[in-house]
């Protein structure tokens, strides 16, 4: 009886581990808009980190201003491209099996 229970448990465990959605070879094919949204989030995170480090006294004001302006310009360019692609209808995520 114990061997049967161990066998069933093993089968359930393998089924859970190797179910197709958990398969490492299953990848989502991202659109350009998906990539740009991820990039926008990374830029915003960098801006938050930059502000925190500036307030902590790790950056002189000139460096802080220069880096902040660069990140803000990059964010604006990314958001403009997202808006342009969204107007064209390039939205959503395609999934590749």
Describe the structure.
The protein is mainly alpha-helical. It has one domain. The protein has three helices and two strands; from the N terminus they run αβααβ. Strands 1-2 form a two-stranded antiparallel ribbon. α2 packs antiparallel against α3. The longest helix is centred in the last third of the chain and has 28 residues. It is elongated, with a radius of gyration of 23 Å. The mean pLDDT is 85.
Care to count the β-strands?
2
Write the H/E string, N to C: HEHHE
Number of structural units classed as domains: 1
Mean of pLDDT: 85
> Number of helical runs?
3
Question: What Rg do the Cα atoms give?
Answer: 23 Å
Roughly how much helix do the residues carry, as a percent range?
A: over 70%
The gist of it:
This protein has 97 residues and is mostly helical. It has three helices and two strands.
Primary descriptors:
2 strands; 3 helices; 97 residues; mainly alpha; two-stranded antiparallel sheet
List the helices and strands and how they pair.
Blueprint: H1 2-17, E1 27-29, H2 32-55, H3 61-88, E2 94-96
Antiparallel strand pairs: 1-2
């Amino acid at each position: 009886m114990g061997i049967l229970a161990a066998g069933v448990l093993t089968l359930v465990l393998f089924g859970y581990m190797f179910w197709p959605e958990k398969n490492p070879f299953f990848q989502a094919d991202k659109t350009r808009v998906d990539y740009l949204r991820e990039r926008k989030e990374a830029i915003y995170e960098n801006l938050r980190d930059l502000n925190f480090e500036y307030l902590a006294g790790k950056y002189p004001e000139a460096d802080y201003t220069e880096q902040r302006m660069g990140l803000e310009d990059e964010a604006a360019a990314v958001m403009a491209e997202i808006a342009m692609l969204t107007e064209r209808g390039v939205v959503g995520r395609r999934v590749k099996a």
